[in-house]
Design a protein that fits this description.
binds adenosine-5'-diphosphate; transmembrane; binds magnesium ion; cell membrane; two-stranded antiparallel ribbon; 5-stranded mixed beta sheet; alpha+beta; EC 2.7.13.3; 6 helices
C-alpha cells in the first residue's frame, strides 16, 4: 500500500508539472507566433519590424528560461532512481553554473565530504540543485560568495547539504512565499517556478529543506536527505561496481 501511495504521489507531481510547463510555455509561443504573423506583411515600417523581431526573440528566450527551470537536464531514460554520489552530483552542477558564476563575479567555495550517497533520480537532483544554486548566484549581481558544503549528520542517518550565499537576502514575508507558484521578485527575468520545482523534487526524494535569510546579508538553504549506508565488502555486492567504487 505504501508503495502505491508513493507512486500515485509521483504521478500526481509529474502530471502537475507537465500541465504547468505547457501552460507556461504556451504564452510566449503564442506571442511569438503573433509577431511572426505580422512580419509577413511587407508594408510594415522598419521601426515596427525591429520591434516585432526583438519582442519575438525576447519571448523565445523567456520560453527557454521556463523550460530550463523545469526540465533542462531531464532525459526520459534518466528518469530512474539510483544511488547518487552526492559530491559528484554537486560538482557537476557547479561545473555547469561556473560560467554564470564568473559572469556575476561570484566566487564558489566548496567543502564536500566524499563517499556519501542518497537515493534519487540523477537528472531531477541536478535540476533541484541548479535551481537553488542559480538563485544564489542571481542574489549576488555585484559579486559575492556561494558556499556549498556536504556532510553526514552525527547519527549518520542523514546527509546534509548547505547552500549559502552572501546576496540580497529575503524578508520574512518573501521567505514565506518561497516555492509558491509564480512568486518572483525578478520581474520579467524570473518565472517563479524554480523553487516550486526544487521543493517538489526534494519531497519526491524524501528530503527536507530548511531556509533562513537576512536582507542584505544572504540566504542559506539546508537540504536534508536520508542517508544510504553502502553495503560492506563481501556482503551481497562482492563483484559489483557502485558508481566507481569496487567491492
Ligand atoms: P525566479 O528565480 O524565477 O524568480 P524561483 O522560484 O527560483 O523563481 O525563486 C522565487 C523567488 O525567491 C525569487 O524571485 C527571489 O525573490 C527569492 N529567492 C530565491 N532564492 C533566493 C536567494 N538565494 N536569495 C534571495 N532571494 C531568493
Ligand atoms: Mg530561480
Amino acid at each position: 500500500l505504501r508503495d502505491a501511495v508513493v507512486k500515485s504521489d509521483k504521478i500526481e507531481v509529474i502530471s502537475h508539472l507537465a500541465a504547468s510547463v505547457s501552460h507556461e510555455v504556451r504564452n510566449p509561443l503564442t506571442v511569438t507566433r503573433g509577431f511572426l504573423q505580422m512580419l509577413k506583411d511587407p508594408s510594415i515600417p522598419e521601426e515596427k519590424r525591429q520591434f516585432y523581431l526583438d519582442t519575438a526573440i525576447d519571448e523565445l528566450d523567456r520560453a527557454e528560461v521556463i523550460l530550463k527551470d523545469y526540465l533542462s537536464f531531464s532525459k526520459p531514460q534518466h528518469h530512474q532512481v539510483s544511488m547518487l554520489n552526492v559530491k559528484t552530483e554537486i560538482e557537476k552542477s557547479l561545473e555547469l553554473l561556473s560560467p554564470y558564476a564568473n559572469h556575476n563575479s561570484v566566487k564558489v567555495t566548496k567543502n564536500l565530504t566524499e563517499g556519501l550517497y542518497i537515493n534519487g533520480d540523477a537528472a531531477k537532483f541536478q535540476q533541484c540543485l541548479l535551481n537553488i544554486l542559480k538563485n544564489g548566484i542571481e542574489a549576488m549581481p555585484n559579486g559575492g560568495t556561494l558556499t556549498v558544503q556536504v556532510h553526514q549528520s552525527k547519527t549518520s542517518k542523514s546527509i546534509i547539504i548547505n547552500i549559502e550565499d552572501t546576496g540580497i537576502g529575503m524578508s520574512a514575508s518573501q521567505l514565506a512565499k518561497l516555492g509558491e507558484p509564480y512568486f518572483s521578485t525578478k520581474k520579467d527575468k524570473g518565472t517563479g517556478l524554480g523553487m516550486l520545482v526544487a521543493f517538489k523534487i526534494l519531497k519526491e526524494m524524501n528530503g527536507f529543506v530548511d531556509s533562513s535569510s537576512e536582507v542584505n546579508k544572504g540566504t542559506r538553504f539546508t537540504l536534508i536527505f536520508p542517508m544510504i549506508n553502502l553495503p560492506y565488502k563481501n556482503e551481497i555486492l562482492s563483484n559489483t561496481t557502485v558508481k566507481g567504487i569496487n567491492y
